[in-house]
Write a structure and sequence with these properties.
By secondary structure, this protein is mainly α. The protein is about 45% helix and about 10% strand.
Length: about 140
């Protein structure tokens, strides 16, 4: 079922049919994407800054095109900064080093959470609290 929304680009009301913006803004964005694609084809080692400067297209549109893999499919590598450290990358949001670091941190946190759950359950596998004790462990 289609719903009525405000276009995130221009603010006008439109019937959302999966484009996530009104038809006019969608058409304008498609034209901008074509301009960017031509520029990148002619300048294959461009950075996002250079693309935006040369085409006057917003960074947001260029980044979306990159995330969608639009340039990689055509054999062109466009570099942009890792969201954490700023290292130049051509795919995803994080460089491999930052990605590995985030995964490591998540694994460490999960291990801490599991250890905490095990401690709370006690050796019997049931909670450590008796019926006469409150959540803070004090006699009631």
């Amino acid at each position: 079922m289609n719903k009525i929304s405000n276009c995130p680009v221009c603010g006008r009301l439109y019937v959302d049919m999966g484009l996530k913006m009104c038809r006019d803004c969608y058409e304008k964005e498609k034209e901008q994407e074509a301009v960017v694609a031509r520029y990148v084809r002619d300048n294959p080692k461009s950075t996002v800054f250079e693309i935006c400067e040369a085409t006057s297209v917003k960074e947001k549109i260029v980044y979306r095109m990159i995330r969608e893999g639009r340039f990689i499919e055509s054999g062109v590598e466009v570099s942009y900064p890792c969201e954490l450290c700023g290292t130049s990358i051509v795919r995803g949001r994080l460089c491999n080093k930052c990605k590995d670091n985030v995964v490591k941190q998540l694994q460490e946190q999960e291990a801490k959470n599991a250890a905490l759950r095990d401690r709370k359950q006690g050796p019997s596998g049931k909670g450590m609290y008796s019926k006469n004790m409150g959540i803070d462990g004090h006699q009631r």
